[in-house]
Amino acid sequence: MDLALWIATGLLAAVALAGGVSKAFMPLEKLAAAPGGEWTEGSGAGFVRSLGVLELLAAVGLILPAVVGVAPVLVPVTAVCWVLLMVGAMITHIRHDGLQFVVLNLVYLALAAFIAWGRFGPASFTA
To answer: Is residue 63, in this structure, part of any structural domain at all?
Structure first.
């Protein structure tokens, strides 16, 4: 169980890192032209950059607390926050892009829910 949770956490952290870097550092025009980036056309640069920073923080929050052993409860808390972020992403993609990216967001949501369940429950770091 612990290995499956670490694999899921690593995958989700990689997704958060990639998404965060693209939203925080890529020019908005290039991001809007990318597949699934249509939603950025009606959004301000500050909003998109803020989402990027949140995703970068999520990548750190999924891995670092458990690795260094400082406040490891932040791992499942971050996973719960990611679930909420994916709900918002699904709503946004339904409005702009269609169902292709909604399914992808649902996969990310399921990974985060698995991490939250596992780290709050049977494979918590405090047990």
So the answer is: yes
Q: What is the pLDDT of residues 20-52, one digit of tens each?
A: 999 999 999 999 898 888 888 888 999 999 999
State if pTM tops 0.85.
yes
Q: What is the DSSP string of the chain?
A: -HHHHHHHHHHHHHHHHHHHHHHHHS-HHHHHHSTT-GGGGGS-HHHHHHHHHHHHHHHHHHHHHHHHTSSTTHHHHHHHHHHHHHHHHHHHHHHHT-HHHHHHHHHHHHHHHHHHHHHHTTT-TT-
Mean local confidence (pLDDT), 13-19: 97
126 domain-assigned: no
